[in-house]
């Protein structure tokens, strides 16, 4: 999953959130230099990624993007799934996405000197451009995919990705809904995370 899902799945612990956010940038045993709760956040991040990569519904969603992205289709699926989470945020969280994002920004800034160098480099951009909130909009997803295409080996097929999303919106949303319910349950049961949910 992409940033927003990792942050949401951290529950109410700021240290867990910190570790979950930096998980991609803490390699091997490097996580052991952090506090116990931040370590747990890094391990939660890895567990979320492993669960996601091996889930059949995620693989089903990835097939929609495979003609354009090949082996990178899973990366695009992560971004699209964050779009669904952001767009329907109040179905999952009692706080608005803006409130949640501001809290995340505050946690990351208050722990700035603990952040890996690469995270320190992009954090100002993430905050200034309200990247977490932007996931709720199609143009925000377009921007994310464009940035990834220019900075990584992800193919620049953004227009095709958006067309696939809009053409197959209901089916992809249904795959996300069922997968995310499984992911929330997995995070809660495996790491004893208390995730604050929206009232039904």
**What best-fitting shape do the alpha-carbon axes yield?**
globular
Proportion of beta-strand residues: under 5%
Largest sheet: none
Determine the fraction of residues in helical runs and give it as a percent range: 55-70%
Low-confidence stretches: none
Q: How many structural domains?
A: 1
Which radius of gyration do the C-alpha atoms yield?
16 Å
Quote the average pLDDT. Answer: 96
Specify the structural class: mainly alpha
Number of alpha- plus pi-helical segments: 11
Q: Please report the total strand number as a whole number.
A: 0
Q: First CA to last CA: what distance? A: 24 Å
List the secondary-structure elements in sequence, H or E.
Answer: HHHHHHHHHHH
Describe it.
There is one protein chain. By secondary structure, this protein is mainly α. It has one domain (3-191). Helices cover 69% and strands 0% of the residues. The protein contains eleven helices and no strands. Helix 3 crosses helix 11, helix 4 (56-69) crosses helix 5 (73-87) and helix 5 (73-87) runs antiparallel to helix 9. The protein is globular and about 45 Å long. The two termini are 24 Å apart. The mean pLDDT is 96.
């Amino acid at each position: 999953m992409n940033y927003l899902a990792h942050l949401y799945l951290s529950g109410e612990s700021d240290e867990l959130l910190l570790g979950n956010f930096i998980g991609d940038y803490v390699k091997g045993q490097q996580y052991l230099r952090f506090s116990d709760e931040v370590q747990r956040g890094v391990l939660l991040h890895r567990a979320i990624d492993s669960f996601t990569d091996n889930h059949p519904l995620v693989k089903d969603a990835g097939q929609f993007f495979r003609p354009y992205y090949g082996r990178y289709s899973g990366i695009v699926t992560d971004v699209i799934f964050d779009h669904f989470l952001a767009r329907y945020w109040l179905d999952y969280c009692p706080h608005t996405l803006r409130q949640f994002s501001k809290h995340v920004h505050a946690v990351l800034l208050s722990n700035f000197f603990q952040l890996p160098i690469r995270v320190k480099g992009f954090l100002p951009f993430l905050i200034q451009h309200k990247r977490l909130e932007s996931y709720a909009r199609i143009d925000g997803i377009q921007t994310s995919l464009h940035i990834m295409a220019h900075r990584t080996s992800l193919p620049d097929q953004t227009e095709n990705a958006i067309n696939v999303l809009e053409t197959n919106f209901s089916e992809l949303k249904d795959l996300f809904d069922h997968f995310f319910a499984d992911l929330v349950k997995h995070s809660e049961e495996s790491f004893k995370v208390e995730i604050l949910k929206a009232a039904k």
